[in-house]
Amino acid sequence: MEEEPRQWILKKDPPSSEVDVDGVPSILLKLLGQRGISGKEAIDAFLNPRLKDLSDPFLLPNMETAVARIFQAADQGEHVIVYGDYDVDGVTSVALMRTTLDAYGIKGGIYIPKRGGEGYGLSDAAIDNLLSEHGKPDLIVTVDCGTASLDEIERLGELGIDVIVVDHHEMSVRGCPDCIAVVNPKLGDDFHYLCAAGVVFKLAHALLKRRKVEGFDLRDYIDMVAVATVADIVPLVRENRLLVRHGLKRLPQTSNAGLQALQQVAGLSGNVSSMDVGFRIGPRINAAGRMDRPEDALALLLEKDLKGALKIASLLDEYNCQRQAHEKQIRAEAMKMVHEQCDPFNDPVIVLGSRNWHPGVVGIVASRLMRQFYKPTFVISVDEDGLGKGSGRSVEGISLVGAIQACPDDLISGGGHDMAAGLSIREEKLDDFRKNFSEYVLATSTKEQRAPRMNVDSEIDFDVLSLEFMDSYDLLQPFGSHNPQPVFMSREVWLTEAPRHLKNNHLKLFLRQGISEHDAIFFSGGERTLPDPPWDVAFTIDRNTFRGRTSLQMVIQDVRPSHPE
Predict the structure, then answer these.
(1) In whole angstroms, how far apart are CA 222 and each of 82, 229, 243?
(2) Ranges of each domain in the chain
(3) Residues 6 or more apart whose Cβ sits within 8 Å of residue 285
(4) CATH no., domain 454-561
(5) Domain 342-450, what architecture?
(6) Which end of the chain is more exposed for a tag (fewer CB within 10 A), N or C?
(7) Backbone phi, psi, residue 122, to 5°
């Protein structure tokens, strides 16, 4: 079934007064102005972010207390466990936190829960397994989790185990956990954009400001933080943009054997973009957690030998292939259920559940369904006992956290971010949740917000598109959340030859506007019935290097007839 047609929303030009800066191409100034960036200083800071502009890490809430307690652990020879999550942000956070503690001579171990048996964050089952595996530690540092684990942290306190929470997730409605320190930007007024690895980076920075360590250079880990920041889809603003820009630049020459190996396995050489991280590096790290083998992803990032790292990276690549196979099967079943159980064009939400689905890939399927039907979506894997664990993805302006909070009677638990969240639910409650979730969406959004739409940044002619233009355009990178890759449109576009069908239903297109011609790739375009030319085309642009030759390539986002009947 085809996607519902999207409305194209062409952004207005910013006021000329906001984009009048010498030395910057006009198209770049226009795109910056649309992002609210104007004036020489702001534009320079955006286009040329500098590491020296990193802020004081002690501005984060409770940082002083956390630093003091970690130094106590170092000075008294305490046993410290780093406890994290199984996704990219969690695994990189664990790797960086453990590496930092090791640099200070702090002994201890690592624990990452299993997605299937223990689930996200601190749980009683995970605590039991941790204590069985490591014995009783003096201190647990949770990374990328813990903020909402009030009961579990209380239990650890009763056992005489101190806890420091290093996290970026939202607070529980019950408040903050009772522990040594919660280093979470959500408790303060700033830095809300940081992912967990970013918060860990700030903690490491704070430790080093108080007590330097010979041979430990935090700049060596910026590439790991960049991978986490992109993969966790947090806003690429302010320090996130700075860290990702410098981290991506560092990746091709990274000193981390695991990241070297991942790039080799993913077929990356030379410059690495945020798209490469999001679609080639991140999924391979995530695949380990999705297949209930997060320890392999962690082992990769901690491996010192490239030969050993390549073996682990190849294993992660196999996990990713398995993940793709599971995803394909679940997506096909989910599409069938969409048509059988709901009206995909008129219902405000999609909520699907099955006992046949692997819990590790439901988030990916939810994301695909959300994009196809432009609706907030939860896809849920139900175990043999009727307990469902699901992942949700949302559209702009509709908060999944708000939806979860609005449906307390339907859910066992839930949380996350506005655009991506997880939940636990009993199978018999699925229909009730679907109904109440629908009511929440209808009550908190307008019909216009729920309509499929695509923002177009600027109209552009084919004759402007060149590698010289790309040189200026690249200054906008890295692209991601809150700094999306610009979408351009061109009118009256013709085909110079028939579309060429590639694998996975992708299309290679050969386009002409006037006398200017460009090649284009249309991902999944083979699933569409294309109108007769001429077309209006909406697209992004990238560099394409093939057999040593670099060219500008258009990536089609949508097509429509230039002269609709």
Answers:
(1) 20, 10, 6
(2) 57-318, 342-450, 454-561
(3) 88, 91, 92, 227, 231, 262, 297, 300, 316
(4) 2.40.50.460
(5) Roll (3.10)
(6) C
(7) -70, 135
DSSP E strands, 70-138: 80-83, 108-111
- Tell me if 100 sits within 8 A of 73, measured CB to CB: no
Within this chain, domains 57-318 and 454-561 share the same CATH topology: no
Q: Looking at the DSSP assignment, which residues form a beta bridge with residue 58?
A: none
Classify domain 57-318 by CATH architecture: Alpha-Beta Complex (3.90)
**pLDDT tens, residue by residue, 11-38:** 988 876 454 566 677 888 889 988 888 8
Q: Is 394 left (phi over 0), alpha (psi -120 to 50) or beta?
A: beta
What gap in Å lies between CA 40 and CA 42, rounded to an integer?
A: 6
Q: Which amino acid is at 207?
A: L
Identify the CA nearest to 537 among candidates 517, 519, 562, 516: 562
Contacts for 416 with CB less than 8 Å, ≥ 6 apart: 169, 170, 392, 400, 401, 404, 422
- pLDDT reported for residue 126: 94
Q: Indicate the length of the chain as a whole number.
A: 565
| Cβ 255 vs Cβ 302: under 8 Å | no
pLDDT higher than 60, residue 449: yes
Q: Is the pLDDT reported for residue 319 higher than 80?
A: yes
Whole-number CA gyration radius for the chain? 24
Predicted TM-score (pTM) of the model is 0.85
Question: SS3 for 382?
Answer: strand
What is the rounded distance in angstroms from the CA atom of residue 287 to the CA atom of residue 326? Answer: 11
